[in-house]
Sequence to fold (74 residues):
Amino acid sequence: MGRVNGLVPCRFLTLLAHLVIVITIFWTRASNVQASLPPNFSKEEYDEEDYCVLPAFTEVVMMISVFALKRKSF
Fold:
C-alpha cells in the first residue's frame, strides 16, 4: 500500500470539524437568533432575524454537500 500524504488527512479533519460546527449551529439556532436581538423583542422581530440567518446556514450546508459529492466517484 502507498503512503498517505499529509494533505488528505488535513483536508478531511478540516471538513469534519466544519461539519460538526454547522450541526452545532443548527441545534442552537434559536439561541443564536435570540442573542442577536434586544432583550425585549417581538415575534415579528424574531421571525425576521431567523429569516435573515437561514440563507447563511443553507449556504454552508450546500458547500459541504458539494465537497462530499466532489470526492465521491460515480
In short: The chain has one domain: 7-71.
